[in-house]
Structure formats: structure tokens, C-alpha cells
From TrEMBL:
The active site is at 51 (proton donor). Substrate binds at residue 109. Keywords: NADP, Oxidoreductase. Belongs to the aldo/keto reductase family. Residues 18-261 form the NADP-dependent oxidoreductase domain. One of its GO terms (molecular function) is oxidoreductase activity, acting on the CH-OH group of donors, NAD or NADP as acceptor. Residues 256-275 are annotated as: Disordered. The record marks 76 as: Lowers pKa of active site Tyr. This is Aldo/keto reductase. Residues 259-275 have a biased composition (Basic and acidic residues).
Length: 275
């Protein structure tokens, strides 16, 4: 099994560049599916209060027999808990559900406008970070204007910004802003929930390198330097999506895939989403 590279976050914490996503895995399946991912070699699990499966993710991590220090666990704050004290309480509930003594990364899930000022929410996350209860804190679905406002009103720079990125939505501007400010980009829905897998360009490259369209797409993300966590409930795909380290895409392949950008989202637009 090849070792997964890590990305060094702006506070020196190391995060495995390839992880496992758990959105839409029903709670009753989450323990088994997450254990299958850990068994396949994944050491980074992405969940959220919104996904309703934190308890089962925590159960899988605890039942895996792995050292806690060897598994990187992320969760995200719900949109209805942005008030400062609500955020602190919601974090406590997350930790109770997970049954873990600390979290590796805690994110503000969305910069929702009507649920309180996210700079106040961020102060709660800073407190959690300073108390050592989360090793790193970050945001999700923030546009550069949200990040600017956050950084003007806070001390800790977010370690990551988790945004939708895939070949049909390459997000060059948000990623460039992150790179400039040492905020790592995490790419959610990295295969656009399957929508890019029938793309003829990706198919042609996959045929040429002898890999699947999903592997080619995930490899494209890794070579761009982003952090990814594809979701699958299918045992064979869980393994397939982890097997990304025995091949490389050429500069030409990378360029062709990046040129597929058509600014097409599978999820909500952060400037319109109200939670
Ligand atoms: N911060 C945020 O706002 C968001 C964060 N996320 C995070 O990102 C993770 C990944 O994104 P997600 O939206 O789940 O979408 P993905 O892009 O990871 O796609 C998942 C879908 O693709 C299918 N699939 C997975 N692997 C393969 C494969 N090798 N071949 C063919 N089909 C495949 C899965 O089917 P099957 O399961 O049946 O195998 C599932 O339907 C989430 O699970 C979540 O952790 C996601 C959305 C928003
Ligand atoms: O994490 C998430 C899962 O997907 C949902 C629908 O796209 C998002 O709203 C949410 O942020």
C-alpha cells in the first residue's frame, strides 16, 4: 500500500492529502463503510454535524484498532449554530457523538448571512483551537470576500477552505486566494458526484494511462495540490479511489482536464445559499 502524502497546514499540522467523505452515508451504514475505508488505508475522514453520522464515524475510528494519532478527523459546524455560544455547545455535542478526546479539524460549514456574524462564530472556533480541542480550524464554502472579512477581524488564519472543486468547476480564483494566504484548499465533490466520469476527455486519458475516470480525476486534484475525500459506499470503489499513487498525469493531461472548466456547480452557490 503506497503512503498517502500529507499537506502541511499553516499551523504545521499534517493532513493526509487523500481522505474519505461521508456525506449521504446513512448512519446505519456509516460504521461499516468507514471501517472499510480505514481497512483500505484511508487515514482521513470528513464528516459534519449536518450529515447525521458523526456518532458512527467516531465508533468506526474507535473500533478500527488504529492509534487515534494516526487518523485525521474533520467535522463542521451546522448553519443554525453560528451564534458564539451555540457554536461552543455544538462543538461539545460533536465531541460527545464522536467519542474522541480531540478533533483534528473543525470548520464553519457555510458563510450563511442570516445566521449571525461569522466573525463571531470564528471567535468560538479560535477558543476551541486555543483550548487544544481541535488541532486546526478552518472554513468551508468561503469566497475571497468572506475570507478577507474573516481575516480582518480575527487572529487565527483559517488552515483550510473546503470548497466545491472538480474538472467542471476548477475554482482558480478561490484557490489562488487561498494559496496567497497559506490557506489550503480542500476539494469537495471531487468527481462532481459522478458527473465528470462520462466526460470523453477524461475517458480518453483514462484509457491511455490504464486507469478509471475516477482515478484520473482524483489524481488531477492531487497533482494540483488540493486535499480530496471522495465518498463511496461501494467496497470496490472505496479501494479504487485510494489507488492513486502508481501513476502520474502529464502536464498535457493536466491542462486538458483543467480546460474542461465550465463554472458548473453540483451544490449551492455560496453567495446565494442561506442555509
Ligand atoms: N463542505 C461542504 O459543503 C461539502 C462537503 N462535502 C464532502 O466531500 C465529500 C465528497 O463529496 P460528495 O458530494 O460525496 O461527492 P463525490 O464527488 O465524492 O462523489 C460521490 C458519488 O460518486 C460515486 N462514486 C464514488 N467513487 C466512484 C467511482 N470510483 N466510480 C464511479 N462512481 C463513484 C458514489 O457512489 P457510491 O457511493 O454508490 O459508490 C457517489 O454517488 C462528501 O462526502 C463530504 O465529506 C460534500 C459536499 C459539500
Ligand atoms: O456538506 C454538504 C453536503 O452537500 C450539500 C448539498 O450539496 C451541501 O449543502 C452541504 O454543504
Amino acid at each position: 500500500m503506497s503512503a498517502v502524502p500529507t499537506v502541511t497546514l499553516n499551523n504545521a499540522v499534517e493532513i493526509p492529502q487523500l481522505g474519505f467523505g461521508t456525506f449521504q452515508i446513512p448512519p446505519e451504514e456509516t460504521r461499516g463503510t468507514t471501517l472499510a475505508a480505514l481497512e483500505a488505508g484511508y487515514r482521513h475522514i470528513d464528516t459534519a454535524q449536518m450529515y447525521g453520522n458523526e456518532k458512527e464515524v467516531g465508533q468506526a475510528v474507535r473500533d478500527s484498532g488504529l492509534d487515534r494519532a494516526d487518523v485525521f478527523v474533520t467535522s463542521k459546524l451546522n448553519n443554525d449554530a453560528h451564534a458564539h455560544d451555540d457554536a461552543l455547545r455544538a462543538f461539545d455535542v460533536t465531541m460527545e457523538k464522536l467519542g474522541l478526546d480531540h478533533l483534528d479539524l473543525f470548520l464553519i460549514h457555510w458563510p450563511v448571512p442570516d445566521k449571525g456574524d461569522f466573525t463571531q462564530t470564528w471567535k468560538a472556533l479560535e477558543q476551541i483551537y486555543r483550548d487544544g480541542r481541535a488541532r486546526a480550524i478552518g472554513v468551508s464554502n468561503f469566497q475571497p470576500h468572506h475570507l478577507r472579512r474573516l481575516m480582518e477581524n480575527s487572529e487565527v488564519v483559517p488552515a483550510v477552505n473546503q470548497i466545491e472543486v472538480h474538472p467542471y468547476l476548477t475554482q482558480d480564483d478561490v484557490r489562488a486566494f487561498g494559496a496567497e494566504h497559506d490557506i489550503a484548499t480542500e476539494a469537495w465533490s471531487p468527481i462532481a458526484q459522478g458527473k465528470v466520469l462520462d466526460d470523453p476527455t477524461i475517458g480518453r486519458i483514462a484509457d491511455r494511462v490504464g486507469r478509471t475516470p475516477a482515478q484520473v480525476t482524483l489524481r488531477w486534484h492531487l497533482q494540483r495540490g488540493d486535499i480530496v475525500f471522495p465518498k463511496s459506499s461501494t467496497p470496490q470503489r472505496i479501494k479504487e479511489n485510494f489507488d492513486l499513487f502508481g501513476f502520474e498525469l502529464s502536464e498535457g493531461d493536466m491542462g486538458e482536464i483543467s480546460a474542461l472548466d465550465r463554472n458548473e456547480r453540483t451544490g449551492p452557490d455560496p453567495d446565494r445559499f442561506t442555509g
